Structure formats: C-alpha cells, structure tokens
Model the fold of this input.
Amino acid sequence: MSRIPRPPTTTRATVCTAVVLTVALAACSAPGDSSSDSKASSGPIKIAVVDAQSGQLSSLGDWEYKGAKLAVDEWNKKGGIDGRKIQLKLFDDQGDPTAGTNIARKLASEKYVAMLGTAESAVTIAMAPVLQQAKIPNITSGQSDGLVALKSPYLFLNGPTSTTYDSTLAQYLIKDKGYKKIAMITNNGSFGTGEHDAFLKAAKGLGVSPSTDQVVTTDQKDFSAALTKIRSKKPQVVFIGSEEVEAGLIVKQARDLGITAPFAGAAPQGTPVFIDTAGKAAVEGTIVSSPYLSNDASDASKKFAAAYKAAYGKDAELHGAKAYDGANILLTALKTSKAATGQDLADAIRATAYKGLLGDFAYDDTGVGITKTTIGVISDGKLVAQQ
Amino acid sequence: MQETLQTLVGGLSLGAVYALVAMGFSLVYRTMGLVNFAHADIAMIGAYAASTFYLTSKLPFAVAMLVAIVVTGAIGLVIERVLRPLENKDFDLMLIGTIGFGIVLQAVAILIWGTTGRAVPSPVRAAPLDLFGVRVRTYDLLVMGVAALAVIGLAWFLARTKRGAAMQAVAMDHEAATAVGIDVGRSNALAFSIGAGLAALAGGLVGPMLYVDASLGGALGIKGFAAAMLGGFGSIPGAVVGGLAIGVLDSYAAGHFQGYSVLVTFLVFTVAIMIRPTGVFGERTVSRA
Done:
C-alpha cells in the first residue's frame, strides 16, 4: 500500500512551484512596491496615501483611500495642477507603526511631494519624525492629541482632535442632558487612550467623575467582566472609546447582558461597521459626536456622496469625507503655491482656508484646522442630527 | 459572585471555540508531527465561507456551516497534497510551507471578500436566558453544544472506526504502520482535512460572536495554539481542557488586570508550561523530524 517514492527532481519542482506561488501571491497583496524616481518640477506630482489595507483597521484605511482618490480623480479630470497630473500611490501600513516608519523612509528616498493618511494616530506619530526631516507635508486622518503634541510643522489634521470630539460630547451629556452617572469603557490602544484622557478631563471639568472606568485591550473579544461591573453601577450613559469593530462587540455584548443605558462616543460610533457589528437594535439611541453626521447635511455633502456612490457603489461616511477634505486642502495648497514642495508647501497648506464637508478649515500653528463637532443620535440604524 | 459567574460564562463560550481550534492543531500534530501554521487562516476562510453561504446565498445556518466545512476540508486536502513530497524528508520546509499557505489564504480572502470585513447576525434569535442574574446567550449554548458534539464525534472516530485506528497507528509509529499496510499518505490527508473541517467549524461558529475579516485567524490562532500547548500538544482531551482554560483565564484576567490582561494571561500560560512542559495531558513529546 505504501507509495512509490518520487524522483527527487519532481519533489523539488513541486516545492519550488509552491514557494514561487506563495511569494507571487504575497507580492500581489502588498500594493505600492515599485521604485520610480521623478523629477520635482516636471512629470506627475507624486502624492502617497498611506493607510492600512490589511489587518483589523483595513476598513478604516479603505474608506480613507477611497475619499482621497475621489478628490484626486476630480482634480485630474479638470487637468491636474499647472498642467501636471497628480499621481496617487497607495501604501499599506497594516495599521502597524513599524511598517509605517519603513514606508516613511521609502517616501523620503523616492521624493514624494506630500503624504495623505494614515488613519491610525499611532502610525502617524511613528512616521512624523522621518517625514519632518525629509520635509514632506502630511495631512493625517488621525485625531489623537498626541499628534498635536509632536509640534511638527509638517503635520496637519484633516479633522478635529479627540479633545474637540469629547468636550462637545461631555458638554452635551452633562450640561444638556443632565446625566450624573456616567460609566466609561475604553481600550488601551493609542486611539482609546486618547479618548479616555480627553473625555475624563472634559467630564471632570464639568464636575462629574465617572462611576466606573473600565479599560480593555485592543484585541479583546469577551467583555463580560468589564460589562458586569458597569451593569452593577446602573449608569445613565456609557462612554465608549474604541475603534469600530471592538465598540460594536462591546455594545452587542452589553445588550445581551441586559445593559439598557445608551452608549456615547466619537467618530467610530457613527460608522456602518459599528452599526452592523452590534446590530441595528442594539445601537438605537447611541449618541455620537462627529463633524460629519450625514450625507444629506449640505449641498456639498450631497454632491460628494453622489460622486462617492457612483465611483465605488457604496455609501459615503465620515472617514471618506475627512480624507476627501484633506486631499482637497493639499491639492488647493499645491495649486496656490504652483506645485511647491517642502517648507513652501507646508506654509501653503497652513495658509489655505478651505470650506469643506466637515466645516470651515483654517489651520493654526498646531496643525489643527477645525475645532467643531456636532451631536448626532443613531435612530433606526442611521445617524441623524440631534434636534 | 454574579460578576464571577458572568465572567465564567463569557470565558467558557469563547473557550469552546478555542478548544475546537486547538483540536485541529492537535489532530494534525499527532498524526504527522507537524504544526500546521495555516490552521488559523483556514478557520478564517471557514468563517468567511460560512457567512457567505448564510448571508449571500441565504442558506440556513446549519447548511451553510456544512458547506463551509466541506470547502475548507478540500483546502486542507490541497495543502496536504502540495506538502506530501516533503513528508519525512524536510520537516522545516514543511513548516515554512504551512506558514506560506497561511499568508496565501489571507491574501486570497482579501482578494475575494475585500478589506472591509462583515458582521454576521446571530442565527439564534431567542433572547438571553437569565439565571439568577447571570445572562447566558442562547447562541453561546449552541456553540458549546456543537463543540461538545464535535469532541465526542472525533473521539468516537479515532477510537471506534478502522480509519481512525489507522490514524492512531500512524501517530504512534508511521514506519510500523506502513509495514502493516496502512497508507500513511491517505491517513495524513484525512488528518489534514478533518483538521481543516474543525477549523471551519470554529470559524463559522465564532462569526456571529465576533466580526469576520481577514485578520480573524490571528485572534483565534494564538489562543488556540496556546490552548493546544497548555492541554498537551497532540492530545484531544488536552485540547478541550486547554481551550476552556485559556478562554476562562483570559476572561478573568480581563476583569482583574484590565489593560494588562494579555500580559497576565500569557505570563500564567508561560509559568504553567514551565512547570509542566508537556501540558496537562501530554505524556510524551512527539518528534518526527
């Protein structure tokens, strides 16, 4: 019954094929891996988008890329800048700071003019020193206050910081709603920690200390212990500071454990991924602080949402809108500065006053261009403005 | 008290899933002496396949699971076939081969299903049971029930059927097994496809509890692997005990140490492995390299 041994050459050939296949397929999955140099003053203007395309933050990276690409495509259709096309190239940072720093070095050596992204503050923070040294302006989608603390003149945010999100939220919950018993659950990643600190500070400033303050890890899957503690405190509202999927799991499990209090949070709680993960019934009444509540907010957002839907067949949301604004600010600055690079481009971005989907951008020295969010509530699976 | 029990319930339901993952790891290891590093990614493919048949093709959940198990079982056969020429020749290359397959499966999942994952609604609509203030999700009961059936089924197969006995024989001594006329290659293929089927079962069941995306394998794989180690690599009862232990340990660590729970979980795991390197049920270390 035993098999006749194959001649060794066949064996080796099979292995070689397998290895080659593996390598080839792995290479396919990592976009943005060629090295072509272009001169600074002619040919296409090279802009990099760095966002996670794999890993747990890949949906975030996907939205960001789609928003940025939409803006660039529109500019290219109008003829580019100074007759030069804009070349957008996507790099996958896997949501990993180490991968991010490697990409930053690559951008510097391949002379990219500017960078859009990343969606994860920790990655942007890791990349910032390299980009600052190479004088590559970066418009990030991160919102951590740690970004501002870097004081890099080349780093700009395409949205408000956690402080803005959470002080607006705390103001609404404590002043307008009069909630006194607030529970907190946040994760220990860079986003969650930022949310934790910003909300805690804002709430304490308004004279309310949380009745319980639970911290979970970023890859935790079972929240029974933390949620049972929250349930025993009978809070009026639960503040949640974590990314889309984890926040969705927390709310889903909380409802199963019999917690009926509404949840409140920042940008991730307004996204479809959060709503789908938790389920429509579970997220009803969730209070969200966001600069972009819905696609129907204004004529500009309606136009953006229609273009987004036409290009990708999916509904636009906050992150795509943020990236679209960020890309438009960069392209406007490139136009006004006649495709400048380095310090001149950074100055041009700082001087750009832009009326965007999120509001009116006007950058100060900190790199923050917008400091306002509004309160929305999830009703019937959709985020609507609070009346 | 209520909190302690609630934490236990939460830990046990995820522990049942880790146990299934650990069983797949152990089955392949005891038969071939090989750690299949693609195992967790096969579970991820299983989760995607089950959710696709359930949500897109609108099949009943149980049928969708069965189809997913068959699909991933076939993937297991393909992996084994490609690696077969290396069996008993180059063990290291075989290990690296399974790692390569894991990467390929992740890339394939992104190509097919995209980067944005999907949420799977629970197929059991019944509200959670309330037992003296401890809430038990009905779906979790289903998961634990199915996992228990899978354990019993596998134990029965290995102990009572001819093929199962042949696999046991190959696990003990593959040369002697060949001498008495057992087809080692076929036995290995069977182990690989049953292992892949178990992975699909774990992935499909965990879909409605978590969120299905290409990185799901990472979450299941590390805990499942640790569970197999803790129980004794290669032991089926060990995989079950290890899986439940890791699930419960993880839950309690999360409750007491909050942000440091992962650190604590794996510190306890490391100490346990140092005290008993063969795991709870491991009486020998298999070395087939």
